[in-house]
Amino acid sequence: MTAAVLKKEKQPSEKQPSAVKKEHGSHAGRHTGLMALYHKELADHLRSKRFLIILLLILGTSIASLYGALNGLADAISSDSNFVFLKIYTTSGNSIPSFMSIIALMGPFVGLTLGFDAINSERNNGTLNRLVAQPIYRDSIIIGKFLAGNAVIMIMVFTMGIFVGAVGVLSTGLIPQTEEVLRVLAFLIFTVVYMDFWLGLSILFSVVCRHSATSAMAVIALWIFFTIFMSMVANIIANAVYPITTQYEAALNTMNNYTLNLGLNRISPYYLYSEAVSTIMNPTVRSVNVVTMQQLEGAISGYLSFGQSMLLVWPHLTGLVALMMVAFGGSYIGFMRQEIRN
Amino acid sequence: MGEVIIRTSGLTKRYGEKTAVNQLNLSVKKGEIFGLLGPNGAGKTTTILMLLGLTEPTAGTATIEGMDCTRNALGIKKIVGYLPDNPGFYQDLTGRQNLAFTGRLNGLSEEEIKERSDAALKRVRLEDAANKKAGTYSKGMRQRLGIADVLMKDPEIIIMDEPTLGLDPEGMRELLELMTQMAKEDGRTLLISSHQLYQVQQICDRVGIFVNGNLVACGEIEDLGHQVQDSTKYSLELQVDPCDDKILAEISRQPGVSSIQKEGNMFVVESKYDIRSQLTTFLGSHEYTIQHLHQRGGDLDAIYRMYFERAEAEAEAAAMKATQKGKLHNKLFRGGGAR
């Protein structure tokens, strides 16, 4: 199934010169402009140096994390010998972070690179006003750009994910179970949505900002804020609202403090994504919220099934999709309302 | 010619306080070259954007071939080719690929794209550079590629925003030739905005003069010229060889001549009626060679200047009136308050 998804995504880029173009003459109408734009954007991305750079970057870090994981695998297995295949993605070793956390960290960068100059570079080049004078719906422009970016992200994420798994299989001789494959797939889908959010956000800034440098800076600022500072801010706010300095306060407020802290953190897509994928890739995680001792009483320690893990992080997926929709929706509305002079 | 293809009625666009286009009533006939003239910021580009449905008018309507420009923007864009001022292209694509992309956006088949892009490139004489990246093109080549790009659509109407801007004389000549060709041979309607009067004067059938968002004059250049022409005062530019002082006295003695001045190596002769034929006969018989003879006024420059000055004066008067009104209002208000 993974192979099929991969192939489906790769096709447009491979057969673009011949097969795809033929369609245009036949089914003109709503999708003519959209398809033409989508193919052009996709070709642009795949040919660009920028794409090569992020691909090499992701590839390099993946290999490094894989190397670390394979080294640390023996220790990890000795503590828990179930779901070993997943550990290739989640184990960190030799102070190299795991594949999972590297993707969480680098994901925004991929979205940012693909989208930060989507609209404003066209505007500055003077191609945008020529584009809007063509008989296409205006939203085709921004939708085409988003879809092309999304296709590139999917290609990249699935290639990397499967590559890491394949190397893992080859070097360790582990054979993945069906459930493990499903979990990896879910992980990759989450990753695509996560990167799509950043793509949408960077397109939003490319609509709002006149210069591509400004929009890149804005997205980078948000990226750093969400990955590094959000947890601090959440902490400060939670401590201010529910102080736990004295023992009395601690007894009273700890639960609320923690819940508020968690809730605030979950505003950050970085946290949302990290929490979700670590739940999926780690069947031992049974809850993502505070669990009291009473609730745990009588519980038998064991693994969650794939379905139950998914149930646990379904809100996270919904939240990520919603964030993505808000980001892209914002750029869509902004673009549609903008007057394009030159 | 004769059938109206572009029509605007009461077309108005306001940006906050500023009125960019005010109550524009304009009609452009099929197959003619219409020049929208005016200084920068007079509302030409805004008018063009409204015609293309890229900007919504605050009031009034614009129609092209009976289609409403705001409601049926897609239909408009199918038959109208637009060349923005300073057109941009995808720098990493070749000229031909850029044209092909436009073709695809217009839903053409690959064969049509090949056919049309070859024809268009040939027409604008870019065949040699067709496979070079658009990023390497010079300004003049970009402009020509822009025209080829417009031709990909095979439009009935071509709207050009400041097409002559920044071109060298040779490029200008080619462009004007091309525009005339597109109108007269292909039967397309051209709407050109410009502030470069001489060029436009050469090719436009009719012009509209824009000042501060108002269309102050509209019609054929000759008709407008007659309006400007002061019938009691003619001013003639004259340059002759040999240019000696004797000629000055000779001319001033001619009947009808009221005064003569020397401006550089040129004489400016003022007279009460048209003395051109009389003067040429005289100069010819006295073995002078006429190097330059031009009746001042009546050309677009003079027309333009006159309308522009008139509009400026009106605007000033209006502003004055407004401030006076304001003062009066203030007075009344204060007076009322004191009571």
UniProtKB/TrEMBL annotation, chain A:
Keywords (A to Z) from UniProt: Membrane, Transmembrane, Transmembrane helix
The transmembrane segments are 51-70, 99-119, 140-164, 184-208, 220-242, 313-335
Biased region (Basic and acidic residues) positions are: 1-13
- Region Disordered, residue ranges: 1-27
Q: Does the keyword Disulfide bond apply?
A: no
Q: Does the keyword Transmembrane helix apply?
A: yes
- Write down the superkingdom of origin: Bacteria
User: What name does UniProt use for this protein?
Assistant: ABC transporter permease
From TrEMBL, chain B:
Which UniProt keywords are present, listed alphabetically?
Answer: ATP-binding, Nucleotide-binding, Transport
The record's section on Pfam families has:
ABC_tran (PF00005)
Which Gene Ontology terms cover its molecular function?
ATP binding
Give all residue intervals belonging to the ABC transporter domain: 6-237
Please give the InterPro entries that the UniProt record associates with this protein.
AAA+_ATPase (IPR003593), ABC_transporter-like_ATP-bd (IPR003439), ABC_transporter-like_CS (IPR017871), P-loop_NTPase (IPR027417)
Which N-terminal stretch is annotated as signal sequence? none
Please give the family membership noted in the entry.
Belongs to the ABC transporter superfamily.
Protein name in the entry? ABC transporter ATP-binding protein
